[in-house]
Amino acid sequence: MKSTISLIAILAASISTSAIAADTNTSLNGWSIRPYVGLEYNYISANIKKQSADFDSNGTNDFSGKLNTSGYHAVVPNIGARIGNHLGFELGYLRSSEESKSLSGTDFLAGTSGTNDTRITGWHIDANGYLPLADKLEAIGSVGVGRYKAKTTVNGTIVAGGFALANGSASDDSSDTALRVGAGLQYAVTDHVNLRGMVRYVDVHFKDSGDKLADGAWTGAVGINYAF
Length: 228
Fold this sequence. Notes:
two-stranded antiparallel sheet; mainly beta
């Protein structure tokens, strides 16, 4: 896992460094700025864990354990600008699908039933480096930072001895600022329309009282953008 993350980071840094060198060499001719808007589909592989729930809002957790959900889908709008031929900056917003997991006595206490629902939201800013590979095809390396929030809602009932000990709904959230690295390819369909695919690693953990509620996230993305 660490070696894969390191490989993506090195690839992203290499592309970005090559891009900086290329633009430095042509900076005497001036910098051109070309804004764009885009849309990406993201599949997010992240294991989000919420470890407690207070059904009756009395300040005491009715149970604690691990609520694991993974496999989130999101459509991510973004805006950005190419600066010269090899550099760019991009700002995006993410709101994922709400993913559910059924609860049972194996998660908490015997007699537990219900569901937990988790959604991820956040924004990011990336610096992108572009390196031409062939006619209309270029490699992309990205390094950036994101601010994310995971919100979990638990709906359920704890039953013991035939009596409901607690039932209802409780929710909580945790936020984290995380480093993002990515690499991918972009293909110019026309002078204005580009298609791209990216793989990213986001070092997000959503810590709660010192405990990690996530072990990072992998994202696969396909998108389109329109350059003005």
